[in-house]
Amino acid sequence: MDTILKNFTEILCGTLDNQAQIDAERAAGKQLHPYAKHVTDICDDIIMNRPPDHEGIYILEESYYRYPDVETMELKPLLFYVRSDGDSKALLQSVQIPEHISKEEATNANESLIFDWNQLTFRNFGVAEYTWYESEQCFKVDHEADMGNGITFRLIETLNREGLQVMELVHKNGVKITPYDTPIHYKPVTIGS
User: Fold this and answer.
1) What separation in angstroms does the CA of 188 have from each of 68, 111, 118, 150, 157?
2) 107 has a pLDDT exceeding 80
3) DSSP 78-115
């Protein structure tokens, strides 16, 4: 694994949430963002039938969300294929999780989870280019994708070892449907806390 992918996975992988942000918002009188948690890990070992010359890595991200005034937690598992340009960019593509695998099955803790490389296809997200800024020790991306059916998705992120700042802007037919206007601030979760 080259330096770019090593830095990218060391920052992105692990358990991160925005509990500190939620606590601050509630203390100020109003929760604006959903409680959000990512449980993320490299999952190359569960990709079966992968060609030996297929470079890059696969990452499984369990994204959990609980919106203000909603009791239930929503799980959105995401599978990513990431490769390096060999210089300063991590190139991320979103992979469709096969339909026969339920959201509840697509977790890093599921020891029986297997993905068949022959069944994996890219979603219409395009290639998000995360650029490494050595002086700031961070990755930044500003990526927009046409998801079809009048939906556009714009991802603006800054990733560093202190955490992730993630802004996802979703528009449908030109109307913003993201219920907040500022990034979610994820911080690493200390095990046992």
Assistant:
1) 22, 24, 34, 35, 16
2) yes
3) EEEEEEE-SSSEEEEEEEEPPTTS-TTT-STT-TT--E
- 193 — pLDDT class (breaks 50, 70, 90): very low
pTM confidence score? 0.93
Report the distance separating Cα 95 and Cα 75, nearest Å.
17
Cα dihedral 23, 24, 26, 32, rounded to 10, equals -100
Residues 60, 40: contact at Cβ < 8 Å?
Answer: yes
In the chain, what is the greatest distance between 2 CA atoms, to the nearest angstrom? 54
Rounded mean pLDDT, 176-191: 91
Average pLDDT over residues 23-39: 96
Query: For the chain, what's the residue count?
Result: 193
Q: Are 35 and 187 spatial neighbours (Cβ–Cβ below 8 Å)?
A: no
Strand, coil or helix: 8: helix
